[in-house]
């Protein structure tokens, strides 16, 4: 009986964690460049003294869905849509380097180029990008940033920097609690991606399937209810067994 209660309890815990993952995906269904988190459950044998007969259910983080989201044309010169396996380098809250595919960029009042979440974009040297006063801005397909200085003609457009865009396969990245991706092997820095790395005036949408996620949430809820019922029945049976033992005693 104890074994049944334990297995049901670990299963319910894993189901709750999976619900949290699906909820996180649903909350980011409209976040540009968001990659859906993947989760699964697998059996885990509990080690210890005695016969190895107890197996728990464990929630497994399987990374993220690397498929591209739908493209939306915006015409905004600060919107960029990255090619496959290309990631914008940004400054993380701890000052380190992190990566994102959220291409809805903006300028702060002091001219710093940031993501929608306020994280500074980095140039090829790993420094935050700040633009001087200008009357026109253009981001090239290779990540170069060109401006027409304030008060100058269009023929004075000049390149002032280049966005750091790295090439990284999904297995080279892991998502942190802040939603930004990090290099899983810091000993091997991610290199600048060559050639055309993005399209401008467009945004990659979230790749979350909202309808599928809602169905998954319903399935997980029903699964959790069944596991709770198993726990309740196991507790009822244990109480009945204890009553019989007291009567026989």
Provide structural commentary.
With 249 residues, the chain is of the alpha+beta class. The chain has 2 domains: 2-66 and 208-248, no CATH class; 71-204, no CATH class. 26% of the residues lie in helices and 29% in strands. The chain has 2 helices and 16 strands. The chain has helices at 2-27, 210-248, and strands at residues 37-45, 55-64, 71-73, 80-82, 86-91, 97-100, 106-107, 113-114, 134-139, 144-149, 158-162, 165-167, 173-175, 181-183, 198-200, 202-204. The strands form 7 sheets. The chain has a 3-stranded antiparallel sheet with strand order 6-5-12, with no helix packed on it. Strands 9-10-11 form a 3-stranded antiparallel sheet, with no helix packed on it. Helix 1 packs antiparallel against helix 2 (210-248). The longest helix has 39 residues, at 210-248. It is elongated and about 100 Å long. The model has no long low-confidence stretch (mean pLDDT 88).
The count of DSSP E runs of length 2 or more, i.e. the number of strands, is 16
The biggest beta sheet reads:
3 strands, antiparallel
Number of helices: 2
Q: Rg from C-alpha positions?
A: 25 Å
Give the spatial strand order of the biggest sheet: 6-5-12
Q: Quick check: average pLDDT?
A: 88
Low-confidence stretches: none
Helical proportion? Answer: 25-40%
